[in-house]
Amino acid sequence: MKLSTSAQMREIDRYVIEDVGIPGAVLMSNAAEHIAIAALGQMSPDSHAAVFCGAGNNGGDGIGAAAFLMEKGVHVRVFIVSDPEKLTPDSRGMLSRLTALGGRLEVFADTVDVERYLDGCSVIIDAMFGIGLNSNMRGAALLAAGMINDSGAYVVAADIPSGVDSDTGAILGEAVNADMTVTFSMAKPGHFLEPGCICCGDLRICDIGVPREVIEYAQSDIYAVTPDDVSLPRRRRDSHKGDYGRCLIAAGSVRYTGAPALCARAATKMGAGLVFLGVPDSIYNIMAVKCDEEMPFPLPDDGQGRLAANGASELLHMAADSDAVLIGPGLGRSAEITELVTSVMRISTTPIVLDADGLNAISGNTGVLDSASCPLVLTPHPGEFTRLSGAPASGDRLRAARDFAMAHGCVLVLKGHRTVSAFPDGTAYINTTGGPAMAKGGSGDALAGMITALIGQRLPLKDAVITAVFLHGSAGDLCAEEFGEYSVTASDIIAMLPQAIKRL
């Protein structure tokens, strides 16, 4: 699903009003009606409501929604957290409609009267800022956000909860916690990026009269991945295992025998035809017992239970006959592993997925990415990304991921509650599946194996990555439904993959 930044949305509005000729007041009235309909769905006939608005067009949407509610017999109070004299012309038109119905605009003050009124409201509409906010909440708006969050009312946000940066998902000091967000024409990145996405509640995207062709032709390089965006090819009836990829995995060490088993099993479950698992000689016997469908083989050991650097020659030989390579889960850290990883990256032409200790091996030496001879997919969690890039992953995750991918010509899968997959062409995809049930060791190993499997099956690189990430989260969601959020394991996620795939 294509997303729109705040600047792009403002340009779309300008074009529709000035070039297409649809009055802004019409767009605002349509937006107001959608907000009011959402609010009415949470109200009984004798309910009270409150609207908090600003002086911009988002505030006009809220004032118009209040007018619609009054027409339905709802008792509404409308509070403005900005200077009423600064209302936009279209917002003044909505205010005229409100006052004609007997309503009025009250300048917000944190009083006992307002607090008591909010305690009796069924619904509160947040229309203070929408996508227009670009600095921390302060003053009356900050106080209002706190009162809204402290109330027991159902909260409907107009466009995006006030205090959430619509482009980054960042919380600008404080944010309204909405139960539903009604946005217009196109969704915004902040609806899906953490932490702001948590404030949005249920997201409803409404048509307010912007012509469909304007939306279709709008340029965007940021997407949210929904079920409609992913698919897997049907398999030919006369196919065989050789048609579905040879995957090579280098993983594991004496302390970490679970990681190689998990990523190899996930690759098999994701449809790989053949999975070869290279491990240090010291743990080969353990892996031979753990693996039934996958084929473990021993590689030179450094004497400490980790891979030795001279294992690179055998990996390179096998990589030449493979369709995808995964390096990293459970490898541990050493100078020899760093040498092995960088050697394989420089020479191999087979696509490589770098995960976990494969990423740690090149931390502080990202120049090796620029000299790689093969397509690269990096799958760091936030801590690994910080070590890799030197930049924190807790700020603008979307920009950080895109900048890194473009700078180094690689695919960057920045894992998290809303995993961001960024590509060298500047496009980025925000995943919409997965949740806290997946916050367990081994989940990332499973994802790495899945990505490797789909690359090995020769899906286009972009499709392989976003499909694997989506299915990984979808399997986690199914596990949460089945087992609850506390008891899900990485093995459960892998076992649930068939159900997630069938949903496609």
The average pLDDT is: 96
* Secondary-structure class: alpha/beta
End-to-end separation in angstroms reads 16 Å
Query: Which of globular, elongated, flat, extended, rod-shaped describes the shape?
Result: elongated
In words, what does this structure look like?
- There is one protein chain.
- The chain contains 19 helices and 17 strands.
- With 504 residues, the chain is an alpha/beta fold.
- It folds into two domains: 16-220, YjeF N-terminal domain (Rossmann fold, 3-Layer(aba) Sandwich), CATH 3.40.50; 242-503, Ribokinase (UDP-N-acetylmuramoyl-L-alanine:D-glutamate ligase).
- The strands form two sheets. Strands 8-17-16-15-14-13-12-9-10-11 form a ten-stranded mixed β-sheet, sandwiched between helices. Strands 3-2-1-4-5-6-7 form a seven-stranded parallel β-sheet, with helices on one face.
- Helix 3 (57-71) links the parallel strand 1 and strand 2 (75-80).
- Helix 2 crosses helix 3 and helix 10 (312-319) packs parallel to helix 11.
- The longest helix has 23 residues, at 461-483.
- The model has no long low-confidence stretch (mean pLDDT 96).
